[in-house]
Amino acid sequence: MIHWLSRPALITLELTPACSNRCPGCFNPFRDERNRPPLPASEWRRILEQVCSAAHLVKLSGGEPTLHSEFETILALLEEFGQPFSLFTNGLWERPAWLVQRLRAMPQFHVALISLHGITPAAHEAFTGVPGSFAETMTNLRYAINSGLRVCLSTVIHRQNLDELAGVARLAAEWGVKVSFARLLCDRPSPLEPTPNELRAAVAEIERLRADGYRVKFGNCIPQCFTPSSSSGCLAGVAYCAIGPWGDLRPCTHSTTVCGNLLTGSLLEAWHSPQMQSWRALIPPACHHCAAFSRCHGGCHVLSELRGTPRDPLMRGPLTADETPPPIRLSPDWCPVPTYLELRMEPFGPVLLRGNRVVPIQPEMLQVLEACDGRTPLATLEKRFGRWGIEVIAALAQRGMLHYVRQT
After folding, report:
1. What does the alpha-carbon distance between residue 180 and residue 221 come to, in Å, rounded to a whole number?
2. DSSP letter at 169?
3. Is the pTM of this model over 0.70?
4. Burial of 197 (0-12, 13-18, 19+ CB in 10 A)
5. Which contacts qualify for 317-324: CB closer than 8 Å, 24 or more apart?
């Protein structure tokens, strides 16, 4: 069973439908409305008054969010509300120096997720559809990183970059940044979509890169029954939703399901609406009997919604056993330190939030967390809580909610 939060913790704000790319693989539901004027900043203020009272983190997206004519004003609103945010952008910026320096000056800024779909113009521009976009993106990426901006690369896996995934990881390592590899989601057949065997090979390569120490991860859900991976289940309708350029709330940036409008109704009404409940019911019944369900959440629901299929097309069937993550080697003199940024108490129990990570825990785990103060070594914690406490600490470390410092 998946428990959904009483209010969304992660919200994408799609500020504008305008975009400087023409991606053949674009899965944006308003990709054909690029010339329709988005809401002005005054209306986004009304929306942010609701969003900022609920969200742990918001993501500015689009289209290309920096193309909103009042983007600077919207940044000022986030600053006024003290709202942590990230920026999802294609890296084609009209004023690179201004944007980078403005973001660096904002304590609320989390990270810029910048699209790079290969290490050659051919691979990148096969996806963006714009000649010259690779060179401009690379120039702005180098400038942002060299200026000290927090950056993560976003790479969609497609047929023209399958031989360049490791190259992207190596380039990111040179720059000291992470890479988020995303499965291509298409509402219709696309020549860019890898075959199942090609995607399996790409997933396996990304897992090898992880094992070799590269800072890579998966940005969206790949069903565990398709191929085992470190991919996490989708949080759409669970902890996440999107608000489009005209105020409509949807479960996912790719979904066409409108659950309400934040200019005529409330965030909580939309989050608890019948439309959202129908979305949550899209989980195939067989998935509830799968050993990997707690990690996978039943695959990508938006594909079944838009393609009219009963399940994610990659799904193969429930698993009887789930692969356990590799063990973490612990040293008795290590002192665990919490890295989560928010603790929420939900009707079903406590939830830890950090960036786009959402980790439910059992109430009895809180006493272990409270004891992880960065000064108490694991040997002492094991004496107090036993083996169970060490297993809790290891599990939370694997989910990114704890890290270790060595006792001095």
Report:
1. 12
2. H
3. yes
4. exposed
5. 317/225, 317/286, 318/225, 318/286, 318/287, 318/289, 318/290, 318/291, 318/293, 319/224, 319/225, 319/290, 319/291, 319/292, 320/291, 321/291, 322/224, 322/291, 322/292, 322/295, 323/224, 323/228, 323/292
What is the Cα–Cα distance from 189 to 187, expressed in whole angstroms?
7
In DSSP notation, 269-327 reads HHHTSHHHHHHHTTS-GGGGG-TTHHHHTTS-HHHHHHHT-SS-TT-----SS-PPPPP
The pLDDT value given to residue 328: 62
Q: How far apart are the first and last CA of the chain?
A: 43
Paired tokens of 332: 């008795």
Residue type, 358: V
Is residue 262 a contact partner of residue 46, using CB atoms and an 8 Å limit? yes
3-state class of 160 per DSSP? coil
Q: Is residue 373 classed exposed, middle or buried when 0-12, 13-18 and 19+ CB atoms within 10 A define those classes? A: exposed
How is residue 372 written in tokens?
Answer: 């992880």
Token reading at 57 = 């983190």
- Asked if residue 325 has pLDDT above 70, the reply is no
Query: CA 21 to CA 239: how far, in whole Å?
Result: 29
pLDDT tens, residue by residue, 67-122: 999 999 999 999 999 999 999 999 999 999 999 999 999 999 999 999 999 999 99
Single-letter code of the amino acid located at 370: E
**Number of neighbours of residue 284 by Cβ within 10 angstroms:** 18
Going by C-alpha positions, the residue among 120, 131, 195, 130 that lies closest to residue 157 is 195
| pLDDT at residue 326, as a whole number | 60
φ/ψ of 66, rounded to 5, equals -70, -10
Dist. CA 314–CA 298, nearest whole Å: 11
Alpha-carbon span 145 to 123, nearest angstrom: 22
323 band by pLDDT with thresholds 50, 70 and 90: low
State the average pLDDT for the chain: 93
